[in-house]
Amino acid sequence: MKTLEAVLFDLDGSLVDTAPDFQRICNELLQEEGYPAIDYETLRLSVSNGGKAVIQTAFNITEDHADFDRLLTEMLNRYEYNPAQESRLFDGFEILLRWLEETSIPWGVVTNKPARFTYPLMKQLQLDQRCAVIICPDDVQKSKPDPEGLLLACQKLIANPQHVLYVGDHQRDIQAGSAAGMSTLAVTFGYLQPGDDPSEWGSDYVINQPTDLFPLLKSFSQPYT
After folding, report:
1. Residue 24: CB atoms within 10 Å
2. Are 219 and 199 in contact (CB under 8 A)?
């Protein structure tokens, strides 16, 4: 890719470190229910796989457990109310986003996280008015790894997918970006599962720390220059 028209991010584990708030809420529930607390490193492995996976990991129960639905509902309600008490952009991304904005390169989010959680999170982090587009599962018929959401984002941005970079921490992100005709970048600092090897996902680029993304983006030509 020689010209960069837009940058799109997966949300959890790619743009924002959201695991601390899931740990906070789960430990509140665990204490209330008489379970031992869960450590951050154990819980963060489940965040990319959704709320059900978080409850399964935190409480060490399966979906057929009598309390599973109640615990899941309570966790999600608490998360929706306060999703970003401790969540933050990954280190270095604030400078990166400011640079994109100053150079008039739009950035956005395409996530499998439902809108009821995505928008409060983005608002609480004061990112909702800065990003050019947000695409959630509510906006499409098929979620990632299907490319529908990414193509919709490009349509809204009036951007050529071949000139767009998609950043993700899961193989489904790379599959979706590739299917959309985008350049793809896999991050190793996200919520990788044991045995995951982003170098085997077929992405165009792999970075090991957030600050590695800035020089890569600056190496691309800006549109209309």
Report:
1. 17
2. no
